[in-house]
């Protein structure tokens, strides 16, 4: 199954579960008619977030729990391709200067510029 389809399933299932649980939570509650929509929408969002967060947390320890999101497998997002950009600049004498640059994305820990440029004490 493609990563795209897996990601859609793992998004749609918690949304559907959250909607159903929110609806069930409001059945029989005395909610004023003018506030019913707002309460249900807010409750749905909160239940989706809590459900997804708890399942993802549990999935770290017990991978089979991922089935509660619709699929046990998780999508794997590969490294994006390098992007090349060519710019043309005119020098002080009017000569054309061409600058080619390539940006390559790397996967790993994020380091701040401060860590990179500060000299060790």
Describe this structure in words.
- The model has no long low-confidence stretch (mean pLDDT 79).
- Helix 1 (3-26) packs across helix 2 (36-61).
- The chain is of the alpha+beta class and 121 residues long.
- Strands 1-2 form a two-stranded antiparallel sheet.
- The protein has three helices and two strands.
- It has a domain at 3-69.
- The N and C termini lie far apart (51 Å).
- A hairpin with a 5-residue loop joins strand 1 (83-90) and strand 2 (96-103).
In short:
This protein is an alpha+beta fold and 121 residues long. It has helices spanning 3-26, 36-61, 113-117; strands at 83-90, 96-103.
Produce the secondary structure layout:
Blueprint: H1 3-26, H2 36-61, E1 83-90, E2 96-103, H3 113-117
Antiparallel strand pairs: 1-2
Helix pairs in contact: 1-2
Count every beta strand, where a strand is a DSSP E run of 2 or more residues.
2
Quaternary state of this entry equals: single chain
General shape: elongated
List the strand order in the largest sheet: 1-2
Mean pLDDT level? 79
- Distance between the ends: 51 Å
Helix/strand/pairing class, anyone?
A: alpha+beta
Order of helices and strands: HHEEH
